[in-house]
Amino acid sequence: MAVTLTQARDAAAREDWAGAYALLHEADRHPTAPLGPGDLDALADSAWWSGRVEESVTARLRAHAAHVAAGDPRGAGATAWWLASEYRRLGRPAAAAGWLHRARHHLEGRPDCPEQCLLALADAEEAQQHHDPAAALAAARRMTRLAELCANPDLVALSRQSEASVLLAQGRRAEGLALLDDAMRAVTAGELSSLYTGRLFALALDQCMGAADLRRAVEWTDAAMAWCSVPRAQHVAPSPGATPRTPAPARAAPVADNPFRGACRVHHVEVLDLLGEWARAEEEAHLVLQEVLEDSLDAAAAASYAAGEVQRRQGRGVEAARSYARAHELGRVPQPGLALLRLAEGRADTALAGLRLALDCQSDPRHDLLGRARLLAALTEVTLAVGATGAAEQAVLELEGLAPAPEAPLLAAVAATARGALALARGEPAHPPLRRALVLWRELRVPYEAARARMLLAAADRAAGDEAAARLSLDAARTAFERLGAAPDARRAAALLAGAQHPPHHGATP
Questions:
Q1: Of 269, 313, 311, the residue nearest 292 (C-alpha)
Q2: Does the structure show a pLDDT above 50 at 243?
């Protein structure tokens, strides 16, 4: 037993989670004495890293009881916080709230320590949920102060991310992204433990995609996938169940079987989709569904939706409908993709109702600017299709107000495309916004939306009597659509080249 536990502790310290789990599980099955609190924390950690979520929760519950019995309120408080976090990911909010309350009870009145950082993080998250930005910012900055006082690099980086989240939600884009860059510098430099490296990759990718920052998303998804794939090196790292109380050495090698892989890969899918690498995007979306743990079903839902987007644009309507249905089953509102599919089927009323409901359900659009922009762009497209230019104008105005154009070129491209489509529908000058949109889409290297902007420019050229320019735009658009496999759009461009007067689609829905 003593030899086994020594080996298990060594394996956990090296983040050899498969080895640690095997040894601790064996020691727990055939004990000469009960496992101590630290060993139970390690058992919980190794079970989670090995993909055994329910076993991890069970071991964490035992670890909490052991910390309480040992008279260790800090250990009990940290374990209770981790239980709250896990129950929240498992979709059990009542249990999560109860364990967070228990964590506060254990740590209330205790001196400054790393565990207090976890409570400050919880305070910041709760304040954001209650739309209290001042309280959220104060809590995030309190976490930073505590983390720096404790000289804990994991928690310092996480506190920077927390403050960035608050600032981005307030529309303070430059400040928020600067803090996020600082947190990610520590991540990509390999200064953090594997748990916090994975957590920060997942959170930062959520934030930069929500903020419509494609350049950061490309850079960090590449880094995240590399981290998830490189074989693990031997190094010393603290147990995630017991927040480190002293400065830890640099440590960032990933584990071989990485439970963060699915959550990171789904953002890689979104980036590949935007960059026009649709075959890879769909393939990786299917991999996400195989990789995610049961406490990460939101990633599975996002992957199903992303696969549906590729299928819809390629004219594979039945498959797209199945993917959107799967995303809905997993808890995601499958919009605007489902609405655009319905529009293509001639069901504009159904499309419009779905989009309006999805927009109404966004309680705080600032947390997902790109998601809001996509819904508004689709609403522009659908309302223009039914001749409701007044409603389209309202959607375009909101799009243009989402973020300052120089700071958010992706949002600016969406807004400029929608503005050009509206101008075209009204018989107003459409070339200036559409040319700006095309420049932005090309700079961002988003080929599908660039081709759609060319289709709208072709319509504007024809309206102005410049048939030669229209044909050049249509030919370039058709080539791009064919390369992507966007069969319906390619057919439309070919028909327009042949002289048929099919109206172009309006709006931009990246």
A1: 269
A2: no
Tens digit of pLDDT for each residue in 412-462? 999 999 999 999 999 999 999 999 999 999 999 999 999 999 999 999 999
Give the residue from 427, 489, 415 showing the smallest Cα distance to 459: 427
Dihedral angle of Cα 302, 307, 313, 317, to the nearest 10 degrees = -110
**Which residue has tokens 């419509």?**
212
Q: Which residues contact 258 (CB under 8 A, 6 or more apart)?
A: 198, 228
Yes or no: say if 269 and 262 are a contact pair by the CB < 8 Å rule. no
User: Could you tell me how far CA 327 lies from the centroid of its own chain?
Assistant: 15
- What are 154's two structure tokens? 């994991």
Q: Which two tokens stand for residue 181?
A: 């860059």
Exposed e or buried b per residue across 258-271, where buried means at least 16 C-beta atoms within 10 angstroms of its C-beta: bbbbbbbbbbbbbb
Lookup: tokens for 235 = 């190094």
* Amino acid present at 130: H
Q: Do residues 380 and 395 lie in contact, with contact meaning Cβ atoms separated by under 8 Å?
A: yes
- To 10 degrees, what angle do helices 297-313 and 337-344 make? 30
390: exposed, middle or buried (Cβ count in 10 Å: 0-12, 13-18, 19+): exposed
CB of 50 within 8 A of CB of 12? Answer: no
Q: Give the whole-angstrom CA distance, residue 114 versus residue 433.
A: 51
Query: Where do we find the tokens 């791009």?
Result: 480
Average the pLDDT over each of 12-16, 42-46, 503-507 and give the range with the smallest value: 503-507
AA identity, residue 408 = A
Tokens 């903020």, residue? 211
Report pLDDT for 410.
96
